[in-house]
Specification:
- The chain is mainly beta.
- It is about 5% helix and about 25% strand.
- The chain has one helix and seven strands.
- β4 and β5 form a beta hairpin.
- It is globular.
Length: about 110
Amino acid sequence: RDTFRFASIKEAGDIISDFATGEDLIGIVRKGFKIDARVDRDAGGVFDFAGEYFVSTTTGTANAVGHGQFVFNTATDQLLWDQDGAGRKAAVVVAPFPTNINLTAPHFDP
């Protein structure tokens, strides 16, 4: 089991070529992405990672309002970080993945 850890967007650019769904995780340092310390995978409500801080789409477009969001673009197999969610700033590629990966919120360790 591997954890691919990102402390901040400054560490973006790695190519993750051997990610195994069901085994590996994406570790993120919340402080480095300016994510509230109360955010967790099973937090519920506004602090729920899956519901508020991660989305998987074919367009790579964030839908969060008022905070950043990780976006997995299923068309390009890229993980993106959009620092202002659905705001004006463009998302930045954190890492590309092998083709046909189904990256979901449970693959994260926030």
